[in-house]
Amino acid sequence: MLRFLGWLFTVGFMLFLGAAAGLAYVIWDVSKDLPDYKQLAQYEPPVMTRIHAADGSLLAEYAEERRLFVPANQMPRQLINAFISAEDKTFFTHGGLDWMGIASAAVRYVQVKTSGRGQIVGASTITQQVAKNFLLTNERSLQRKLREALLVQRIEQAFSKDQILELYLNEIFLGLNSYGVAAASLNYFGKSLDQLSLEEIAYLAALPKGPNNYHPFRQRERAIERRNWVLTQMFENGYITEEEMKTAQAKPLEVTPRPFGAQLFAAESFAEEVRRELIEMYGKDKLDKGGLSVRTTLDPKLQIYARQALARGLIEFDRKRGYRGPIAKVELAGDWGPLLKSRKVPADVAPWRIAVVLEVTETEARIGLQPKLKPDGSQVEERETAIIPLEFLAWARAYEDGSKRGPEIKTPADVLAVGDVIYAAPSKENGKYHLVQMPDVEGALVAMDPHTGRVLSLVGGFSYGRSQFNRAVQALRQPGSSFKPIVYAAALDNGYSPASVVMDAPIEFNMPNGEVWKPKNYQNKFFGPSTLRRGIEQSRNVMTVRLADELGMVKVADLAQRLGIYDKLPMQLAMALGAGETTLLKMVTAYAMMDNGGKKIEPTLIDRVQDRYGRTIFRHDARDCTACTAEAYRPDLPEPELLDIREQVMSPYTAYQVTSMMEGVVARGTGKRVQVVGKPVAGKTGTSNEEKDA
User: Fold this and answer.
1) Alpha-carbon torsion 457, 460, 464, 469, what sign?
2) Is residue 188 part of a domain?
3) Of 188, 365, 530, 560, whose CB count within 10 A is highest?
4) What is the pLDDT of residues 377-414, one digit of tens each?
5) Which residues of 326-349 are buried (b: 16+ CB within 10 A; e: fewer)?
6) Which domain holds residue 486?
7) Is the pLDDT of residue 596 over 90?
8) Confidence class for position 462, pLDDT limits 50, 70, 90
9) What's the mean pLDDT when you consider all of the chain?
10) How far is 692 from 471, CA to CA, in rounded Å?
11) 418 inside domain
12) By the 8 A CB rule, do 619 and 51 touch?
């Protein structure tokens, strides 16, 4: 018996040694190519780029993963408690692996497999999730689990619990394209972390298991149930009182998803142009992941004024040419709500709405308004109707080519018919709407600080939602007569004065193709000898061509290129009348240089760019100010002097004179209507052939 027991012991010992050797080999084999856990110390997650207006308000966000990095010591303690309660109750006591949790999960696994009922639960700790999310894949295999177990031991030895939590809470995906708790707080509730209530904190802690399973709209009941479970866990772990738990559980789930992209009203075209510039400067990868903080030149109040001014002007111009008819016609039968479902109204033309004409009487038209959308994207069930009275249709005479319009409107039936799909805008009178239409004409507006080149407002068209083409910077158009000040400035630079006389009389030029070009004035008249001042005020074409011919187009082209209007202007006399194509932004920049005394400026939409650490990596104001630094400052020092070393592209005397001449354009010439602003204004009108551009 003793020999038999000895034999058993020997065999058992040999098997143990073999198993230990085998396990050691497996561990060695698994660990030889483990990822370097030390790279977690240099963790730089993809962080969203945020773009701000000049006053600091948020203009837009761009990201591949919507994430804001927040250090653990800046997170509310209750938020950490909620995630600990939901994901890893023993986080602060275990060494990376929760052996009790693993045993419990194993027992549960056996129960589920034998009974065929219930759900398998995991036993992953927060440290394991960090190892998997940062260093491993989601592959389900024994080898991956072994690698994970080895890594968590090393991570727990190298990092504090707060550091591990910081990695976890800034990396996890929480739905709505939110990565990390700070981004989720903003995207779900529009709040920073320190503003969250207890029930909101609990909902965020409910999401790591599966954001789609607890979607605030599509899975609302499950979301509330999971949130309340988290609150119960927080109570059982001693983080909140029973009263706090019950109060929070009784509250509804109120989620208001935050829009992504442009945030300020009417600033979409400005934000998009900034985005293009940032991609050109740093690349798309840096924009989407680099966490840049961009301060732009945009003045939000001026931007709204600019958008309103352009939109009103285009609508007024369009209305004077009549009504072009409904968007579409539909057959009314039963519920008219679904007939309007597929039609979209650009968000930036709110409060305009799509409507269908339900009834037309002698005095008014009754319309059905497109049902509004719920947060989940479905339409509300209630049907909303309104009326358009006859007086709100008076403008809608039939559209005809040319300057004529159809007969006056006597009844709504002259304009509308049942089944017409139209745009309608609410009036100040409750329940009454105006008939409106999208303008058929387009435009753009740029407002710039002439001394710095900072673009204070920029509007690229009537509606960014209708067309993303930015007419302020992308549209190459003919400036027409607004180019004439450059011709006159070139003349002033070359010995002419505002009082110099040029003949306004017929002139002919033989073209290379054998044809004869005879420039004409807009009025088809000639006015004889006239001063340069009078010529620019009345926008005389023949005078301008004669002047350019006497000067030589080389001098005109040289000045136009120094002002940045053209890269290379063709040496043709027609260019003196603005026949070359350029952009609105370039024209505004050239005018700004005439305003600031002829100093060169670079137009900019960006004041400053900082990286994710707050270091300035771009600044538009390139003036040297060594004495401005805090280290060099003393209270007794005089204010630092900033040297203006900008290039002088035009004589300051010429700039003054041509500005004075353009004041005459507004006071006595073609721009007289601009006097309504009640301020000193200098400018120049410009209209191309057949009034294609104005």
Assistant:
1) negative
2) yes
3) 365
4) 566 667 889 999 999 999 999 887 666 778 899 999 99
5) bbeebeeeeebbebbeeeebeebb
6) 480-601+647-691
7) yes
8) very high
9) 86
10) 14
11) yes
12) no
Q: Say yes or no: 398 and 485 in one domain.
A: no
Is the model more confident about 671 or about 117?
A: 671
Q: Indicate if 394 and 529 belong to the same structural domain.
A: no
Cis amide leading into 351 (omega within 30): yes
Looking at the DSSP bridge assignments, the partners of residue 243 are none
Q: What is the CATH number of the domain that holds 586?
A: 3.40.710.10
Q: Quick one: 498 and 423 in the same domain?
A: no
The distance from CA 460 to its chain's CA centroid, rounded to whole angstroms, is 13
DSSP string, 33-90: T---GGGGGG----B-EEEE-TTS-EEEEE-SSEE----GGGS-HHHHHHHHHHH-TT
Q: How is the chain split among helix, strand and coil, in percent rounded to 5?
A: 45, 15, 45
How large is the average pLDDT for residues 603-629? 88
**How far apart, in whole angstroms, are the C-alpha atoms of residue 145 and residue 147?**
5
Parallel, antiparallel, or unpaired for β 293-296 and 49-52? parallel
The answer, yes or no, to whether residue 450 has pLDDT greater than 90, is yes
**How large is the average pLDDT for residues 563-583?**
94
Of 249, 283, 301, which residue constitutes the final position of a domain? 249
Per the listing, tokens 């120049």 go with: 684
- Please check whether residue 604 is in contact with residue 568, taking contact to mean a CB–CB distance below 8 angstroms: no
Strands, E, within 181-221: which ranges?
none
User: DSSP strand E in 331-465: where?
Assistant: 353-360, 364-369, 384-389, 420-426, 433-436, 445-448, 455-459
- How many helices (H) does the chain have, and how many strands (E)? 19, 19
Q: What is the pLDDT of residue 512?
A: 84
User: Does 214 lie in the same domain as 131?
Assistant: yes
Query: How confident is residue 120, by pLDDT bands cut at 50, 70 and 90?
Result: very low
231 and 163 in a common domain? yes
Hey, which residues does 436 pair with through a beta bridge? 423
Side-chain half-sphere of 412: how many Cα atoms within 13 Å? 23
Smallest CA-to-CA distance from 258 within 79, 73, 48, 46 is with: 48
**CA 663, 664, 669, 674 torsion: positive or negative?**
positive
Using the 3D structure, point to which of 226, 249, 272 is the last residue of a domain.
249
Domain count along the chain:
3
Spatial distance between the Cα atoms of 426 and 478, rounded to a whole number of angstroms: 37
If one compares 83 and 377, the residue with the highest pLDDT of the two is 83
**Nearest of 694, 692, 670 to residue 681 by alpha carbon:** 670
Based on the fold, state whether residues 543 and 427 are members of the same structural domain.
no
Helix (H, G, I), strand (E, B) or coil at 560: helix
**DSSP track, 588-606:** HHHHHHHHTTSB----BSE
Q: How confident is the model at residue 28 (pLDDT cuts 50, 70, 90)?
A: very low
pTM of the model: 0.81
Residue 110's pLDDT is: 59
686 and 547 in one domain?
A: yes
23 pLDDT above the threshold of 60 = no
Q: Which of 277, 301, 307, 271 is nearest to 461 (CA)?
A: 307
Indicate which residues carry an active-site annotation: 87, 481
Within 8 A by CB and 6+ apart from 486, the residues are 556, 559, 560, 563, 565, 590
Measure the CA–CA gap between 256 and 265, rounded to whole angstroms: 18
Per the CB < 8 A criterion, the answer to whether 232 and 244 are in contact is no
pLDDT in tens, 266-322: 899 999 999 999 999 999 999 998 999 999 999 999 999 999 999 999 999 999 889
Residue 359 has pLDDT above 60, yes or no: yes
Q: What DSSP element (H or E) covers 516?
A: strand 516-517
Q: Which residues pair with 49 in a beta bridge?
A: 62
**pLDDT score at 104:** 60
Are the C-beta atoms of 605 and 574 separated by less than 8 Å? no
